[in-house]
Amino acid sequence: MTSRDGYQWTATTGLRQGVPSIGVISPPTNVLSTTEDWDVVVVGAGYSGLTASRDACLAGLKVLLIEARDRIGGRSWSSNIGGYPFEMGGTWLSWGQPHIWREVSRYQMRSELEPCFDFSRGVNHFELRTGSQGSSIFSHLEEDALLASALEKFVDVDGAMGRQIIPYPHDAFHNPAARQYDDMSALDRLNALAQSLTPNERAVLESFILLCSCGTLETTSFFEFLHWWALCDYSYKGCLQHLISYKFKGGQSSFAIKFFRESLRTGRLSYAFNSPVQSINDHGDRVVVKTRDGRQYSGARLISTIPLNVLSSVHFSPPLSPQRMAAANIGHVNQCVKVHAEVSCPDMRSWSGISYPFNKLAYAIGDGTTPAGNTHIVCFGGAHNHIQPEEDVEATKMAVENMSPGNMDIKRLVFHNWCKDEFAKGAWFFAPPQLLSKSLDELRCRHGNVLFANSDWAVGWRSFIDGAIEEGTRAAVTVIEELRPAPAVRSHL
Asked: Cofactor(s) for this protein (predicted)?
C-alpha cells in the first residue's frame, strides 16, 4: 500500500509524492455506525495511541482509534522501497530504553535489530567540512575523541558530568537547581565556554547539538540537552549507544503494526483513518469528537495524543487551560530535515560527516546497504539553515553532495517533510528555554474526561518512541482503572 505521506526522487521518475508502507491501513475504517458509544476514544495512531488502544482493548474496554493519516506510526514510520526500509521519522532504539524494550521483548523482536554503523568498508573515516577551513579527514576513533571532548566540556556544569544536577533522569527537576539551566539556551552555554573549545570542537559540538534539537542554538534549551545526556548514562559512548546505533531490520512500521494487530484481535477495536479531528467536547457524561468531514463519535473518556505543535489547531470545549495553550502556542523547536540518499559507492557505508554551518544538511552517516549494493546515507538538517527538500530537488541533491563532494552519486532520494506536515508541524520534540520548567506538569494533567498522552511531555525518554509508549501506558492505566467493571465478589456463607 502507498501512503500519501513522503516523497521519492529518482532520475527516471523525478519527484513523486507518496511512498509505500506496511503501516497503511486498509480498509481505512471498520466503523459501521457513528452512534455507537465507546468506552475510550483515542485520537492519534502513533506509538502513544497504539499503546493506549492496545492496553485498553486487552483490559476489556471498547476502543475507537481515530487517525488523521492513512497509516499508523505518527512521527515514526518506514517506507519499504525495493526491499529496503527507509525510516521516515523516528528510527533508533536501545535496550537501555525500558518501555520500548519491554515491547520488543513482548513481540519477540529482539533478533530483528541490526547495527547502524559498519566500519568495514573502504571509505572508513569521518569528514569535517566547515566551509572556511576546507575539509579535514579523521579516523572514527579520532571523531569519537573530538566529540567526547567537546561534549564533556559542554555538559560538565557540576564537576560530575551532570550527575549531580540531574541525578534521576526520569525526575529531571528532582534537584531544583536544574531549573536554572532551562533558562539558558545552548548558545548561552557555548558562549560561556568559548575560550575552552578549539575550532573543531566548536564545529562538531554545535552540529551535534543541532542534530538533537534541529532548532537553532538560540532556541535550544540547555536543560533539555542535559536531560538527554543524563538519559544516555552521562557519556558520549552512551549517546551513541542509545541514540543512533540500532534499528529494526524491517523498519519501524514492522514494529508498530504489531500493536495495531494485537488490538484488532481482541475484537474490541474500532478505527477510523483519514479522519482529522476538528473539535473535542467534554459534556461531563461523555466526550464527543467531531471530525472535519462532520462525523461525530463519543466515549466515556478520550485520550488525545495530538503533538504539542498541533494542539492549538483542535477546538476543545471546555477550553484548555491558559498555561497549556500558552505552551502549545510556543511549541517545540524541532524543524528537522531528514533526507535519505541512496548513492552508488558501496564503500561509503563506513563514512560519516559533518558539513556545517554553510550547508543545508549538517550531519550524515552511512546507514545501510540497499539490495542493489548501493550505500544508504541518512542526512539531517534543521531550522538553523533550513531547506524545504521537495521545493527544489536540485538544491536538496546539492546539499547531499556537499556532505562529501565527489562521493555522492545519488540514485534515489527519500524523505518526509515534517515541517510542512499539518499533523506534526515539526519532528521529534525539543524544547526551547523555559517551556519545560514552566509547563511540563500542566501538559501532563488531564482535562476533565480528556487525558493527554504524547512523547512530547514524557518524563523519561521525552521525544523518543520509548517516551511515546511510556505516555500511552500511563493514559491507558488511568482509563482502565476508572472504567473497567470491578470483579464480582463471591460471598462465603
From this structure: FAD
